[in-house]
Amino acid sequence: xxFASKLKELRQQRDLSLRKLGEKTGISYSILNSIENGRIHxxxxxxxxxxxxxxxxxxxxxxLLAIAGYASDREGNE
Length: 78
Prior knowledge:
CATH topology: 434 Repressor (Amino-terminal Domain)
Order of helices and strands: HHHHHH
Helix content: 55-70%
Number of domains: 1
Number of strands: 0
Structural class: mainly alpha
Strand content: under 5%
CATH class: Mainly Alpha
Distance between the termini: 25 Å
């Protein structure tokens, strides 16, 4: 699953609009919209902010990082 699809799925499961998610993360609506529509790739810090705001557990954060292509950044560095 690509990151954009996973982000949208998690956001909708939590009944959050892009604007509300933006308020929780400090990330603008336009950036979130571009990420969710696959127009831009999120930075590692944005992925972590999204994971925190979406209240995913530790393994969920790793999953999001992996989907976004950052899996190797955290391996063994806990």
